[in-house]
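Researcher: Let's run the pair from yesterday's discussion. Sequence first, then tokens, for each.
Model: Starting with the first of the pair.
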Amino acid sequence: MEPTLDTRIARALDVMQHQVAEPWTIRTLAALVGLSPSRFAHLFRRATGTSPLRFLHTLRMTRARQLLEDTPLPVRDVMRLVGWKDPSHFSRDFQRRFGVGPRRYRAAHAVNGPGDEGRRLTDEARVLK
């Protein structure tokens, strides 16, 4: 039987997923769920297998990839929606994660063929659910 996820960690995960662009720190996440930063980091790592900030980084990169594939938003807007402020840092991290920069990734993966208009999500609120 698998152990149940601590409700405080589940809450932190939910908040991170729904507010991915927020400037989260271990201290702010821990305070949000009523734990000390060290206890929060320990429980988070035990539950997810990774640190809170590494999890957030992966979440942001995954969300950026989805936005580049599914929306016509400019790369600069995608970057901001997932919590980056520095374009060169975003581009470098994206390339490190996916092997190609965000503009080239979009060119290779974006939904833009004939008949694909129905799949393209242009409503940012729908994408960020």
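Model: Moving on to the second of the pair.
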Amino acid sequence: MTQQRLAELAGVSTPTISHFENGKKDLQLSTINSILRVLGMLDERTLVLRDADPEIYGLDIRFEGRDGDKTITCTIEYEALADHFGANRKNRLEIFEANRPRIEREARRKYLGGWLEADGSVRIRTSDL
């Protein structure tokens, strides 16, 4: 791809592309993001949670997130709920809800970090917290 074509696609000037290629340090972040987006080098994944109510899945709690049109299944193991939040078999759903922000942060961190199960899901273990 030529500098001129990249500049057109990114909505910046050709000299800006030259500055980018030469490592000039005073480019705006929005300009850099525009260039990286065109080059396919910008990770724009997100994990939006709270789309569905959590459910008990065996002893664990399962909840879902969305990345665009893609559903991401997330699970927190019972052991993690018990070890870190004091859950027991009877109150694990209530304990999940009470600690949901922290659990969701961990799910998001694992998802965006690429720490996924073979099926693409996120599993939170006691060692993750």
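Researcher: Give me one sentence on the second I can quote.
Model: Residues 48-128 form a domain with the Double Stranded RNA Binding Domain fold (CATH 3.30.160.140).
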